[in-house]
Prior knowledge:
mainly alpha, 2 domains, nucleotide-binding, Ribosomal protein S6 kinase alpha-3-like
Amino acid sequence: MxxxxxxxxxxxxxxxxxxxxxxxxxxxxxxxxxxxGFAKQLRxxxxxxMTPCYTANFVAPxxxxxxxxxxxxxxxxxxxxxxxxxxxxxxxxxxxxxSLTGGYWNSVSAEAKDLVSKMLHVDPHRRLTAGQVLRxxxxxxxxQLPKYTLNRQDAPHLVKGAMxxxxxxxxxxxPPVLEPVGCSTLAQRRGMKxxxxxxx
Length: 200
């Protein structure tokens, strides 16, 4: 995101499934961002992109500029630190009011909480930039910070349920139904919209 090749490019769909390792080392250097299908270069006029392209759990509460990717990464960091999706962020996305105290946050360092709160600032002008995130003490001094093991009591239950659902889906004997693209609900709605707009 801070590469010169990617200058003024907004990914617009940062989420766990779009962040991958290129090898099995588990090193931070082998992490890559993928799926640039929604990525767009910012225009000079106002620097905002208004076409909605996102995954609901990770979407920023404003038009798209570089700050929206920081918001998405903040949601991702929130999720990684607490071990679960940030429902309270989704419930309070417009106001930017969320709690970093109690529960799982008791074992999260003050530096990590500071970074999350600055990445999830509701005002995009006050949100950290990618460069500021990389210079934040939680990133630059990570070897000196306390290390805690994430302890989710419900994690085994969630994993077991997800695995059972995946197994069931893979073992269904229902053949996939493939139809022409024009038969899809979206294509039909777009066709109706064209008919309506040309009739005016």
